[in-house]
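re: ur question from earlier - yeah i can do the single chain one, its not a big deal. heres the input i used so u can compare w yours
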Amino acid sequence: MDVPQSELEAIRQALAELTTRVYRMEQRLQMAAPAPAPSAPVRTEPATAVGSPVSAQRQAPPPLIPPRPVIAATAKAQPDWESRIGSHWLNRIGIAALLIGVSYFLKFAFDNNWIGPAGQISIGLAAGIAIVIWSERFRAKNYNAFSYSLKAVGIGTLYLSLWAAFHVYSLIPSSVAFAMMLVVTAATSVMALSQDAQILAAFALVGGFSTPVLLSTGENREVALFTYVAILDLATLVLVAFRPWRRLLVMSYVGTLILYLGWYWTFYNGGPLELTLAYASLFFAIFAIAPLITLQPDGEHPILAAIPAVLAFVNAGVYFLEAYAMIQEVSKVNMAWFALALAAVYIFLSRLVHSRKLAAGTSEILYYLHLALAIGFITVAIPIRLDAHWITIGWFIEAGVLLWIGNRIHSDFLNAFALGALVLGVTRLLSIDNFHTTQLIFNLRMATFGVAVAVLGAVAWFGAKREDETAQTISAIAVVALNVLALIALSREVSDYYLRQMAGFRSRGYQWRGAYLDYHNLEIARDFTYSALWMAYGAMLMIVGFLRRSAFVRWQALILIAVTIVKVFVYDVSQLDRAYRIVSFIVLGALLLAISFVYQRDWLKLSSRDTSQSRAGDDATPV
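and the output i got, formated as tokens:
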């Protein structure tokens, strides 16, 4: 046990010596550290053995943590308001006051013709360049924000000077002014890359998109304008491919859209459509690719992280509206094919996103967004190309195809869009479509309802095969909707049949009593047919419920039969003739007795099931 004790004492002595040396260094550096306490050094008694217990008790352990030096509390505090105002705000106000004073002097000199137009432009260009160079001194001293503010002033001065040289004084032609502005934009972009400053890149974009406005002469130069804008957009695409500057995409897209719409409202008069649509397609392609190649910075704000998805959605919608405004006036068929081609493009982009390794979360969002856009354009193409009820049929077919694909690839996303298309079709079928039929059952209305019933049946079947609760609920809703649509379709066939019969009496008029009686008899027959139809459909549902052993279907049958009972006892008794009334009650009574007999025979063994459940409950009940 002596060896470990001796090693401990040696470590303590070494720490004490190091502590003393640190104190001496602090005193030499004048850090205002207090002198070490006199009891700090370790006293070694030569008369006592190092490893003896007595020496261990007498020798006090040296302080392992030296006391902190006393430093003024305000030494490392943030600069106070006085220092901030004196060092920052007064500096900026002084620079602004100096610039304002110089501008007033220059204006005074210009007004008194001390300096001619060429001199004014030269002073502006020289001042802009000088301000940009001067700003570098502040950036070298880490005053980045102030340096970029000066650069904004200098760059703006250069653009305005070139604009004045061309537009105000006509000192240079438009081509020279354009080339010089392009040099300013390129130089600003180079500074942005070399200094890794997104704000300078934003200055370059603002200047670049302002150049066509500053140099506009009111003439239609579509090719030159859109070629220049496309070059700016491609340059932005290169920047965001090497720098995580996603906000530049928004600026570039907004600038492109403003210039395009400004030209369109001013100069476009229907032609040449191909050239204008080609440029619109080029802009669309650039910003459709941009979300796939942008870099995502670490720790980016969620709003900024959503820029690619938002840009992809807005770009698709704006491009479609631009094309619709141009193509729809020429051909609806071509516009429908255009929408389908756009859907194919987004299906391709979704597959491309799925195969690429994008940032976490971005890939999934863009994948589903592109799929949603593709489905949306398919849905829009249907009413563009088709008319009336064919739109409804098209949406039903789309819903069926999406449902089949979604279940093949196990995609709830596609299933959700299938349900959306189905809801659109059913809503239009019940509220908008107006069929004029001349034939019973075998007509276009029954065909449309048949397609709807078939798709709803597919929804119910696919949902029943799944085990999750949501799918089971959707399946049950589809079964109910299926039966409701079928009953509505058959009821409308009954109504239209009797309306065609009554139309003949209206055309001839009620000139004699026999015609009026025949018309009234048709109304009675129609009401009786409704009751007979509902009873027959309820009986059919009950049979299916028994055969399929489905309580859910049987309950639907019971509800429909209950509605029929109310109609027979309340309406038919007062409205129908004696013969129809007798038949209604006899048929209803026979149907109810048959259903009651089936339940009493207990063909589904419902009583044994209830007995077993009650016994299980009794066994589980504590005594």
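Residues 37-59, 68-77, 610-623 have pLDDT under 50 and may be disordered. not sure if urs matches, ping me
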